[in-house]
Every structure is written in structure tokens, then in C-alpha cells.
Amino acid sequence: MHEIERTRRAAYYxxxxxxxxCFLTGKAVPPDLTATxxxxxxxxxxxxxxxxxxxxxxxxxxxxxxxxxxxxxxxYLSMERKRNFSAEPLILRIYFQLGPVPTIRHMAxxxxxxxxxxxxxxxxxxxxxxxxxxEQEHHWVQAQMNFDHEAGSKDAPPAFEIVGTVVERIAIxxxxxxQYDWNQIIISTYYLSAAAIxxxxxxxxxxxxxxxxxxxxxxxxxxxxxxLALGLTSGFVLATLLPEAAEQGVSRTMLALLGGFSASAVYxxxxxxxxxxxxxxxxxxxxxxxxxxxxxxxxxxxxxxAKGAEQLKFVTALRADLxxxxxxxxxxxxxxEKMIKRLVEA
Length: 346
Fold this sequence. Notes:
This protein is 82% helix and 0% strand. The longest helix has 62 residues, at 263-324. Helix 1 packs parallel to helix 3 (52-66). The protein is an all-alpha fold. It has helices at 3-25, 31-41, 52-66, 71-81, 90-96, 102-124, 127-152, 159-213, 221-240, 243-247, 252-261, 263-324, 329-345.
């Protein structure tokens, strides 16, 4: 089908959907527009669709009547509402009741699955004990690093002690990995489920507002999936990479939920951190440049003073030599003054 023909067909179906919407919601349709719509009923064959010139006026009038809803949104919702799911299996019929459009149904299903997984992990995953074990491991590693730092300032131990210490620590690390890797996987999936709940809730709430206002557009379906991916990433990052927030009384689960709901907030936090780091480096570079410029200025002044002292010494010795050879002091002073003037001009 040609693109222009497809566009004309879409405009016709939008006119029909907007007219249906006006009649169902009790909006007053002008009589002239009603007569035009009656004329469309005499063209049941798709090959006899109205031309663009015939569709332009009713499309514009109906668009103003249904505003702020958009024609594409009304047509898309009308198509979904008229779909027949009676022949589908029961599980699919239940799935199709989750929302008026596919994207909302997908987000609702993700929300339900994430909520179920969250509840299962909360009930049977012993999350608190696993988090406590991981916190103990973190504190143990931090204490070991502090001990190593303090020990590094003392006399170095013999080589055989260093080798023995390295072997012991490798064994400890292996045992730690065997003991805590499964805990880390469970806790990470727990945080991801919390982030998925927050992200899907945000998508459902946003899409619901658009559907209720009639402004939902299938052109932006991909944005909901992008927002879901951003929510999962930001929730996981906020829960696992910001331990300072957890130490201030905010649980990591809440951080994952908030990060999934508001990915933009996490973006602002990371952007602010980047700006802080950049400002530190920029400040160091600027300070170094200023110090180098000041040092160069000081060195230049010192060189000028040294050169002036040498010239003054030379001129003083020359005047004394001229006076010694019998030149009157006044003439010697005039000659020295003329020489100093030439040196200054040079």
C-alpha cells in the first residue's frame, strides 16, 4: 500500500473514532458535520475512502471537539477496545484485562512478577541476615586494609613472611567467595526486583494519565521500555554503590525502589558527583598554573634586579676610572648619565 493511501486510511479511521468518542461522551456534534459523516456511511468499500479534501474539515472539527485528547490516541484506544479475545485461552484473556493497551499490559505484568519475586525473597531469602553477613565482610575487608596500611609504615617483614601472608590471604579470599557469592546474587536480585517495582509503577502511573486524558500515543511505546531499563540500572546503582546513604538510616531496599521510580534523580546525583570531581581537578590545574605564573614573574624580577646591579657596578667602576685618568668629575658624570640613558632605551 502506498504511503499516501495509508495516511488517508488512517485519517478516515481517526475521524470515525473521534466521532464515536464524541457520541459516547455526549459532546455536541455540529449538524453539518453529522451530515458529512452520514455521507461517509454510503462508502462501505475501503477502495472508496473519502479524499483528503473531504476529510480535512471533519478531522479538524472533531480534533477541536475531543481536545486535549489526540486523534491517534483515540483511534488506538478504540482499536484495542474492539479487539475480540473470547477465542483466546483463559490465561491470555486474564492478561488482556491488565490494561487497555499492550504497553500498559506489559508494565503491569512486569510489576506483578517483580512484586511476587520481591515477596518471595523477603519471606524465604533471609535478606536481613544475608545483608548482615555482607556488611560484616565489608567491615572485615576495611579493617584488614587499615591494618595493612598501619603495618606498612613499620619495618618490612622478611620475604618468607610476606609469601606466607599472601598464601593465607588467598585462602581467606577463596573461602569468602564461596561463602558470600550466593548471598550477593540473592541480594542483587532482591534490589533489582525493588527497582523493577519502582520503575514499572512510574510507567504505569504515567501511561494511565495519558490514557485517561486521551493523549496516549503508540509512537512513544519504546520510551516506556527505555524508562524501565533506566529504572533498573539507577535503582541497583543507588542501592549498591551509595553506602553512605544506607549508613544514614535509609535502607538499601528503599534506595532501590526510589532509584527505580526516579531515574532522573539518580542521574542528577551522579552528574553532581562528576561535577565535584571535575571541579577538584580543575581547581588543582588552575592553582598550579597560577603558581607557575607567579614563580615565573618572581624569577623575571630577580633576573632584572641582578642585571641592574651588574650594570650599576660597571657604570660606577667606569666613572671612577675616567676620573682617575684626569677627566673632570662633571664630564665623567655627564658621560655616565648618557651611557645609562642608552642602556635604559635599549
